[in-house]
TrEMBL record:
Taxonomy of the source species: Bacteria, Bacillati, Cyanobacteriota, Cyanophyceae, Synechococcales
Pfam families from the UniProt entry: Acetyltransf_1 (PF00583)
Superkingdom of this protein's organism: Bacteria
Every N-acetyltransferase domain range: 7-154
Keyword terms, alphabetized: Acyltransferase, Cytoplasm, Transferase
UniProt source species: Synechocystis sp. (strain ATCC 27184 / PCC 6803 / Kazusa)
Name of encoding gene: rimI
Protein name: Ribosomal-protein-alanine acetyltransferase
């Protein structure tokens, strides 16, 4: 894994007993997109990758990311950072490591959906070479559209 987090944070592959923290952070950041059972299914699957970033001092989970391996593609299903820890590069570190893991698995491209209103996330994804490919109208429960982004050629830089 690539990590430039400094002394405050730790990038890690979670153990099963740490999954309740993922469900809690999901509730805080995403309104409960996945349940604990959902995180357990992800953890159990050979086709799913789940990463976390925690505070070293207290062990609290502050950021998380995941993707599904579908044939030669990485479908990024999750990238979330706790409100108090945003704007510190944690999302960038997570995305960088998710893409590096996908490349290590010899996947060829990556895709994701992002809220149309989430400009900070869009800016991050564009830094990594993701391009707009389409729109899913009223995709989210509140009726907001999702933008579909793709990154081809994982082995090449942005």
């Amino acid at each position: 894994m690539v990590s430039l987090l400094g002394p405050k944070y730790d990038l890690f592959w979670p153990h099963r007993e740490e999954l309740p923290q993922f469900a809690q952070l999901d509730q805080q950041c995403l309104g409960g997109m996945w349940t604990l059972a959902g995180y357990e299914r992800e953890w159990d699957s050979d086709h799913s990758v789940l990463l976390g970033i925690r505070l070293i001092a207290r062990g609290n989970l502050v950021a998380m990311g995941a993707f599904w391996q579908i044939l030669e593609e990485a479908h990024i299903t999750l990238l979330a950072v706790a409100q108090a820890h945003r704007r510190q590069g944690l999302g960038k570190i997570l995305l960088q490591n998710l893409l590096a893991t996908a490349e290590h698995r010899q996947l060829e491209r990556a895709t994701l959906e992002v809220r149309a209103s989430n400009q900070a996330a869009m800016d991050l994804y564009h830094q990594f070479g993701f391009q707009l490919a389409g729109c899913r109208k009223r995709y989210y429960p509140d009726g907001e559209d999702a933008l579909i982004l793709w990154k081809n050629h994982l082995s090449s830089p942005a």
